[in-house]
Amino acid sequence: MLFNSLDFAIFLPIVFILYWFVTKKNLKLQNLLIVISSYVFYGWWDWRFLSLILFSTIIDYWVGISLSKQSNEKKRKLLLWTSIFVNLGFLAFFKYYNFFIDNFIGAFSFFGMDVSANSLNIILPVGISFYTFQTLSYTIDVYRKKLKPTEDLIAFSAFVSFFPQLVAGPIERATNLLPQFYKKRVFEYNKAVNGLRQILWGLFKKIVIADNCAVYANQIFNDSDNLSGSTLAVGAILFAFQIYGDFSGYSDIAIGTSRLFGFNLKQNFATPYFSRDIAEFWRRWHISLSTWFRDYLYIPIGGSRASFTKTIRNIFIIFMVSGFWHGANWTFIIWGALNALYFLPLLLSKKNRNHLDHVAKGSYFPSLKEFAAMLSTFILTCFAWIFFRAENIGHAWAYISKIFSMSLFTIPEVRPSDVSILVIIFLIIEWIGRESQYAIEKIGLQWKKPIRYLFYYTIIFAIFWFSRSEQEFIYFQF
Amino acid sequence: MKKFLLNIILFIIPIAITLYPFDVFISKSLAKSNKYPGNYTAWNDIYNGKASSDVLIFGSSRATHHIDPDILKDSLNLKVYNFGVNGHGFWLQYLKYIEYLKHNKPPQHIIIGADWFSLEKRPDLYQYNQFLPYMLWNRTIKDYTNSYIGFRYLDYYVPALRYFGNSTAKERTITYAFKDAKKIKPYKTRGYRALYDRKKQGNTENLSIRENYNVKIDGETVDLLNSFLTDCKEEGIQVSLVYTPEYFDEQRFIINRKDAIKIYTDLSIKYNIPFLDYSSGEISRDINYFNSTMHLNSSGAELFSMKLVHDLLQNK
């Protein structure tokens, strides 16, 4: 079920009413309702893959309890690896099997050896990368004794399958989300209204910004051979806004929906395109994944406290694995490596934590220096996005080569003036609300009700007017 | 919670109130459009009661582009309207007929484009935009279109919902909203539009890649055709089944074409109505009269319309 579909518009109020009116008095029943709703939500897309979620849930629930009863370190490790093996096994099979087979064959044929192996026609279960990482965080935290394992199977199932963030995150930590299923939820007016406001902004980002940028970005990327360098540069910029609007829009809807049910999810995006360097960008982009990799991969392998060469190695590992997490294609790995290259000088010169606060805090406009820093970071990010969006390395290379040709100085063949205006309005609102959890969180709260409502009606009208045919969220494929 | 629900309701009320006028605004603007596929003129004439004619032509695009109502009008001295529905079989052609009857006077004569294509029912609602301005709370349109993949249940009942996500409809709304409908040249003249002449090679280019095709004759459509013919007989409306020209070399790819012909032959006998088959006639053997192997060009349509009117007069 898509957040931007009519199905969800009907589904959400039904679950909301059942949740707060029918099952309100019984926590277990309320959690059970979440599990059932989540399974319906997921099964709407393909019910067959519910078995994967169910299997993952049971295994990790069992591993969690077994870990708490086990004091023998070897056996505890074995239990942890069981969970890792099952979760990453699913991921490896459904997402990476064909990639490995194809590269295996390619490598052998490079050395003149003929190897035959069949790739399979595998459907990638939606959101598998998200929920496997979420459940893994649970078993790892239990193993590390940072979290007490749960004995409440329904609460744990609800944690694994919680529908707002099941298919595209934010990837929640068990330490944050699971305890919320143990406590009685009380309806809070302000929290619910805040949730609705965030849903509205998420829909705006997805439907108005991402889907409209996608029309031009797809046109340009699909026909890159026949377009000028300047047009391809426009395409890369539009893709940057497409992916941001798409993914952060999803996160906003997920967080807002959770608020309606009394839950708090962690912020996943914090105006990343206003970052002044790449390190800041990665603290603001897909925060739940970045911190996941930091805590469960980067720090365990030594992080930045190892030797000089090991630190470089660690940086490349975390960025390349993060790239590979996005998809079974070399383009994602290169995208990750490129970001590592951007990041490394900052880390080595110890400037990676220069910008921990919001840009131009307390002022209306950035300084010239800040503006230049934001612009250069944005350009670097757009350049990396070319690899992320390209069909393959060859496509990315041809795209970049064309950008760096004389045709960069020609007038673009594709001039998306309508979308440009939308993006500018969007950036202004994001700038105004850059210190909030999401752009319109605080905008208009001091205004009189009719004016504030008018502001929301304008957003709703824009969503209606600029909507295009129902588009899937990009991150579903990851 | 009470305050929350109350505020939600208060917030939604203005939206709900403006939805209907907003729907009317979009629908009326869209209905003025004369851009491709531009089927709106015929629908507007139907709903405004301006389509009343003595002779009605029904069929697919092979009726739309093959039979010129003006030629029939001049020779028969009767008002003629072509209600061909692009890309659809008799199921949706019939929808146009019953909507016509609600707002216009019954015809004396109906010409049915009787070919294999009209006996099929495709799964998707091809050119669904043509229904948008008229479908809100229209039960007949719902009954005849809801079996196709196209509209959702609520699209028929909730104002403006069907325009959500439809960028074409909204772009056309902007283009036509403030234009004078009378000054907009219709895309089709009384439902007819001539197709341009392509070079000989262009006309047959699809044959080199054409694959054999088995017509999926739809039982419900055949039943509907039967009941339609029964009604016409009871009401004294003359019906002629007409298989309009089809390029001869195209016909060999349609494996069970004979089954379709047999259905029409049987109906012709059963209801004692003429079945005029031009698929083996002279026009069908000359590629110069075609735009594609399935559609006549303007000169082919002109010649065919004259031949048809001649034969109709002889059959009288």
Automatic annotation (TrEMBL), chain A:
Location relative to the cell: Cell membrane
TM spans (from-to): 6-22, 51-67, 79-99, 119-140, 311-326, 370-388, 453-468
Keyword set, alphabetical order: Acyltransferase, Cell membrane, Membrane, Transferase, Transmembrane, Transmembrane helix
Pfam entry (one): MBOAT
Membrane topology: Multi-pass membrane protein
The keyword NADP appears for this protein: no
Family statement drawn from the similarity comment of this UniProt entry: Belongs to the membrane-bound acyltransferase family.
PANTHER family: ACYLTRANSFERASE (PTHR13285), PROTEIN-CYSTEINE N-PALMITOYLTRANSFERASE RASP (PTHR13285:SF18)
Entry protein name: MBOAT family protein
UniProtKB/TrEMBL annotation, chain B:
UniProt entry keywords in alphabetical sequence: Membrane, Transmembrane, Transmembrane helix
SUPFAM superfamilies referenced in this protein's UniProt entry, alphabetically: SGNH hydrolase
KW Transmembrane helix (keyword) present: yes
Transmembrane domains' residue ranges: 6-26
Name this polypeptide is given: SGNH/GDSL hydrolase family protein
